[in-house]
Amino acid sequence: MEYIDVLNQSKNIEAVALVPGSSAEQAAIARFKQFFADFSPGKIDDLLDHTYAERLYFNDTLKTLHDRASLRHYLQDSAAATELCVVEVDDVISNGKGDYYFRWRMRIRFKRFSRGQDTESIGISQIRFDSDGRVIFHQDFWNAADGLFQHIPLLGWMIRKINQRL
C-alpha cells in the first residue's frame, strides 16, 4: 500500500518533528490552515510554494500526487469547479514525532452539481512537514461519497438508495 510505504519513507528521510510550541511549528500550522481557509485559484497560486514542498505525497482519497507542479494543476482545477470552498480547521493535534492531524469541516458549493446548494463534509488530514515547515506528506481521511459523489446526478441517486437500505 503506497500510503504505508510513503509514510515510512518520509518518517526516516525528510519529516522532522518541529519543536512543540516553536515559532516554526506555529508558522507551518498557520500556513496550512490559511491555504485551505479560502480555497480559490488565486490563493493557490499565492500560497502553494510556501505551503507544500517540491517533492511530496498528496492523497485526498480522489487523487494521489507526488510533486508540487501536479498538485498545483489539480488544486487549481478543483477550485475552478467550485463557486465556494471554505475549510475550517477545528483542531490540530501532534504526536510529537512529526505527525500533525488537522480535524476540519469543509463547506463547498459546486458550479455543476446542486447549484446554489452548499455541501458540508468533515475529515482529518495527516500532515508531515519538512525542516522548512512545508508539507511533504498529506493524507486526507474523509467520506468522498457524502461530500462529493452524492451530488453527481445518477451516482448521487444510487448512493442515496444504498444508504436507505443500510
TrEMBL record:
Positions of the SnoaL-like domain: 33-136
Domain of life from the UniProt record: Bacteria
Pfam families per record: SnoaL_2
InterPro entries tied to this protein: NTF2-like_dom_sf (IPR032710), SnoaL-like (IPR037401)
Record protein name field: Nuclear transport factor 2 family protein
Lineage of producing organism: Bacteria, Pseudomonadati, Pseudomonadota, Gammaproteobacteria, Lysobacterales
